[in-house]
């Protein structure tokens, strides 16, 4: 390990490396300070924040959180967010995994055409899909419904999840399957009992990345849901902020809302962060 | 993607052989793979077709009409498209989209490589890498709100600059600086996202290549140019494509940086995604879904074209080691 | 072996299809029409349930249900309602009643002929008061509105009115000494600004990023000069911009910019930085809708006294309406109309003044104390829409950015007028 870093340290001799390292730490510190600031600000009173944006909470106010959860509707929204983001991500991975596996294992013209079709979906801006999806969902009465929103998230997740998992499955050597097939296992059993356990890391990464995307998604959630009992967190935040026109905005509560959106991301990331990065790297790098 | 799509030619020979063997009754694995193909792909394909491809098709159809979303649809043919290109605001939006894609992409990848090199030498590199990655998990609106406070004339950024002797800092939040600010935020989040990927690719390069090069007297730059870059090329190509397609979708960031409570950001900072949004969800007028979808289709066509060209350009014989 | 596995995957596929179908049918049966019974209707509100207007409305709705037995299904949709109403109408899922500001009602529904003509509501009796609605809502509020394709301007019935003006803190000694009496001409305003500058206070606080409030100065000046902004914006040749009065108005705005009367740093902040500076006394005036008093209520210092003036020479105050509208495709329009008349009763409508601290269209409901001035302004015989109702995407696509460049001192008055003229020509070419 040591000798390895020795051999490569020659890139930018001494000074450049030191400046680079300092810069990295500076950005790291800035990132951390930003999160800390948001957290501290969420404990302060609204007018106080506007007059001195940067200060410590004089007497930490947790009532911002109470207000956000209750009047701001963030509690119900958080539940909706967990449900739509969680379930849609599970379904998306469950659908994408066998597909990606088949695409990775079978090398035919159809297979690469299909892979390409999924990949092209990565480039479709969400705005193209909003109106058609709204019209379509309303035909089957799935507007203003978390089920409808979840279905849309499953659809939106397909390109990236298939893309990521295809890369992931290509990286798994075929030897295991060969053995399973020689033992007489069918494709489904081979896939479920032999391949999936090996690919668990990739599946979890795909799930987490999809969860994060769905958690933060605003545009579709805004258009496809409207009653306060159905909205997700980003929409709750957006509608709370929009109310500043005509009635003013309580910045303390808003920052509390931001923290409620951020907290699971921070928790998830400190717990699973390196796994996400690792899985993503394998999926894309392969 | 690069490998899964590029690989077939390389494995053709192998496949040809296994197919022949399969036909003669041997190679149960290959046969099984062929049989499982459609049952395994069908569910995902159906969902994708219904919830993704069909809407795109519907959008394409809508783009040929004048439609407010509520009343009757009037046939316009390609007129929506010609109108778009006569609209200087759309041309600005297209230009900005390309600018974000090219300039943002270049800076991001240069920085990601620099970071990779720096991070490898650092202590606590996993921690630093994780923190740098974090911003890409955060909803764009957080940056919009934070920027208003951080970059205000008396905000902490200017205070910090004062410590370094900068007494007349730029007007960060002025309308002129909108696109640079968006670009900066993009680079900041995207660098954190792509660095770990590139880092992993560089990590896989075996040490002996470097050792050999050093014995041959190659300097640091030459080693980078002749070993690091070619060995990590595949991964870079995938990342470049990913960046291209995702840069077209940037939307919230511009809206949040540029828009005040109820107004759109200034036209000079629009990209195609914002343009589509303003046509599809206008304030104080009925939507113009025909032009909205036409603009979306144009940007889709553009990104497809650029992706195809990019993949051609970046295609190299993979380096085997 | 092979056969069983194939069927296994078929089972998976079939199961997925069934699950999807079940999900779809389960939901479609659940979300059918449930409000068909007598007098019941659905209402989508622009307010969130925690806002004071919502509380006033909720109280009235509870009363309405108690009095008539009609059930009202309320959705507190918030301001995003303007983005949702169009798709909802398209999908035939629009509510029977909704509310928004007049420009949004006109823009999203009425201009496309999707808003019901509410003239019959004007003939309805206000319960317990024995007068028709037309007697409690002044006709001037309808007269100023643009007409929908069927020629009606009764597509929105207001319950709150708003006007834009220059607000200031009347008890601030610096302001009081600089402005002993409201200026009557533009030079008078500049004199006030100079006096404030000499006293070390900026004249005008402005959110430099916001085109709308800042362009209101220009709008009022054009009004004073007899230029109708709607007509100005509708001229496809752009020649209307050659009117010397337009350039003069722009030059007057330029005097504010070049004279250093705008609060320092206004072009480098985001909302609400300058609103906050204004409440902290760093500038005298702040142009905004009268809801600004409600916006800043929690942060103004003790002893704050709101007063307002119009930019001098303006002929008529502008007015904005917030009110009810009914989509043409509404299934229970009659019930919704009945509720509109019900809410306009003095005892219910007063909540907009007492709870929500805003002004109602009824002159017999006193405005909250800090808006007494504004209510007097609104008693003018005629009122106008801001920008004379110039609407659509003209503001964002023609005026806004050019105005901001001008307001930030990057272009001169003449350049601003020329740019607007040029952009207006290309704008109309691409509206087709």
Condensed summary:
By secondary structure, chain B is an all-alpha fold.
Q: Could you explain the architecture of this structure?
A:
The complex is a heterotrimer of chains A (286), B (321) and C (432). Helix content of chain A is 78%, strand content 0%. With 286 residues, chain A is mostly helical. Chain A has two domains: 2-62; 64-285, MetI-like (MetI-like fold), CATH 1.10.3720.10. Chain B folds into two domains: 1-62, no CATH class; 86-314, MetI-like fold (Orthogonal Bundle). The longest helix of chain B has 35 residues, at 28-62. Chain C has 432 residues and is of the alpha/beta class. Helices cover 46% and strands 12% of the residues of chain C. In chain C, helix 2 links the parallel strand 1 and strand 2 (72-76). The longest helix of chain C has 29 residues, at 2-30. Chain C is globular, with a radius of gyration of 25 Å. Residues 1-36 of chain C have low confidence and may be disordered. At the A-B interface, helix 1, helix 2, helix 5, helix 6 and helix 7 of A face helix 1, helix 2, helix 4, helix 5 and helix 6 of B.
Largest sheet of chain B: 2 strands, antiparallel
Strand content of chain B: under 5%
CATH class of the largest domain in chain B: Mainly Alpha
The number of E-state strands of chain B comes to: 2
Q: Name the poorly predicted regions of chain B.
A: 1-26
CATH-defined superfamily of the largest domain in chain A: MetI-like
CATH class of the largest domain in chain A reads: Mainly Alpha
Number of helices of chain A: 15
Structural class of chain B: mainly alpha
The biggest beta sheet of chain A is recorded as: none
Contiguous low-pLDDT stretches of chain A (5 residues minimum) are 1-12
CATH architecture of the largest domain in chain A: Orthogonal Bundle
Task: Give the overall pLDDT of chain A as a whole number.
Answer: 84
Key words describing this protein structure:
heterotrimer; A: 286 residues; mainly alpha; MetI-like fold; 2 domains; 15 helices; 78% helix; globular; disordered N terminus; B: 321 residues; two-stranded antiparallel sheet; 2 strands
